[in-house]
Design a protein that fits this description.
The chain is mainly α. The protein contains five helices and no strands. It has helices at about 15-30, 35-45, 50-55, 60-65, 75-85. The chain starts with 16 loop residues before the first helix and ends in a 13-residue tail after the last helix. This is Addiction module antidote protein.
């Protein structure tokens, strides 16, 4: 008997602004651009990709492309998405090693 699986989508579990902010904070702390773009995509899907794209001033298709695994969002797109999610980016000194 074959094992039956269902696709996992983290967006369906990030149903609070706090959970979404926690994922994004973790992504930004790593400094990994691909992870940051992925996390933004997950949160955008959780909030509604069409509305996030509209609020960010980009097309829905353009947003999907920018936040895909092979996408590389422009800084203006990244900042627009962050702003449309009602979030801000804060910069602070990195801890000394």
């Amino acid at each position: 008997m074959a094992l039956k699986t269902t696709p996992f989508d983290a967006a369906s579990y990030l149903d609070t602004p706090e959970a979404q902010a926690e994922l994004l904070s973790d992504a930004f702390e790593t400094g990994d651009a691909a992870y940051i773009a992925h996390a933004l995509g997950v949160v955008a899907r959780a909030r509604g990709m069409s509305q996030v794209a509209k609020d960010a001033g980009v097309t829905r298709e353009g947003l999907y492309k920018a936040l895909s695994a092979h996408g590389d969002p422009r800084l203006t797109t990244l900042l627009g998405v962050v702003r449309s999610l009602g979030l801000t980016v804060t910069i602070q000194p990195a801890p000394k090693s």
